[in-house]
Amino acid sequence: MDWLLALVLVWGSLTTAADEHAQAAAAKAALIAQMEASMYGGANQAESIVNADWALMPESVYQGDVALVRSQTGGTVQWADIEYTLQPFGNGYYTFLPIPVDMKPGQYTIGSRQLTVLDQSFATQYLKVTKKQEQMRRNYDTIKKDQIKINKARSASAPTFLFKEVFVVPVEGKLTTPYGYTRFVNGVFSGSHRAIDLAAPTGTKVVAANDGKVVLADSLYLTGNTIYLDHGMNLFSQYAHLSEIWVKSGEQVKAGQTIGLVGSTGFSTGPHLHFTFFIGNIPVNPNVFFNTTPFRWQKQK
Ligand SMILES: [Zn+2]
Asked: How far does the centroid of ligand 1 lie from the alpha carbon of residue 286, in Å?
């Protein structure tokens, strides 16, 4: 073979390989961008967010709510005495920020954006329980042991969003205690109720609020039969006082899948589901999740 022809052939195959490599990389980048964009409410919303240096979803929140932050670059966000690491997802970096119930209303700088915290006036609830139930709450050793188990379950979360679709209400029931109620039990202040209580007959099916992984399914002292699901990126949901648990720790669950039955186990005055979300160990308002996803928390309140 003529050496020049051979060289041309080799050169040709090299450039083809390089082109193919570039094409594969471009196709992969397009898929990653598409996967991230598909989480948003529409093409316009996705485009405006993924092109911004920082985005807050939403830009104004009430005390006790939660915001999702996106940044073009990785790093950490210092927020209410805790450091949150921005985790890579798609072409950006994300973290949830829980808003403490007692955070001072006002404007807070997150990257290049301003997060507005609005005042939420929480109501007060006076609860009467029997002496025996009141005694239950003083079993500090058992309560502490459970708390170690719970914190361990919430200490590791999948480094990606495990859900795609909207969050669903886990049980059809009557709202008996709204989120954030300041509670007095037998006249004594007992903190704020950072969950919702949905009353329903014992045995009513309780479903997973969204896709996720069971990180705890156990009988606990105060919250009775309890399930914690990890939805990824430090977001967990909690289902308490169940009469039955239908899942095991480590199991993957789908949105709407029955995971247990309503009950009145633990510190409870009647059959109901005590339900909430956590960012790490901080409870946040579950109502902001229902029928939407954090990626669509766009509307200004
Ligand atoms: Zn409750």
From this structure: 12
Dihedral class, residue 266 (left if φ above 0, else alpha if ψ from -120 to 50, else beta): left
C-alpha of residue 158 to centroid of ligand 1, in Å: 27
Q: CA quadruple 142, 143, 147, 149: dihedral positive or negative?
A: positive
* CA of 196 relative to ligand 1 center, distance in Å: 6
Among 31-40, 117-126, 184-193, 222-231, the range of highest mean pLDDT: 222-231
- The residue whose two tokens read 């022809």 is 5
Distance between CA 29 and CA 110 in Å, rounded? 27
Q: Output the CA angle 143-225-261, nearest 5 degrees.
A: 155
The answer to whether residues 224 and 299 touch, using CB atoms and an 8 Å cutoff, is no
- 129-162 pLDDT per residue, tens: 888 888 877 888 999 999 999 999 999 999 999 9
Q: For residue 223, what pLDDT is reported?
A: 95
The whole-angstrom separation of Cα 286 and Cα 119 is 17
- CA distances for 113 relative to 70, 75, 108, 118, 215, angstroms: 11, 16, 8, 16, 34
Task: Return d(Cα 15, Cα 266) in angstroms, integer.
Answer: 68
Strands (E), 128-249: 174-177, 181-185, 188-193, 196-199, 205-207, 212-220, 224-232, 235-242, 244-245
Ligand 1 centre to CA of 191 (Å) is: 12
Total-model pTM: 0.90
Ligand 1 mean position, distance from CA 275 (Å): 7
| 300 bridge partner residues | none
Please report which confidence band the pLDDT of residue 184 belongs to, taking 50, 70 and 90 as the band edges.
confident
| Cα 239 off chain centre by | 13
The CA 234 to ligand 1 mean position distance, Å, reads 22
Burial of 296 (0-12, 13-18, 19+ CB in 10 A): middle
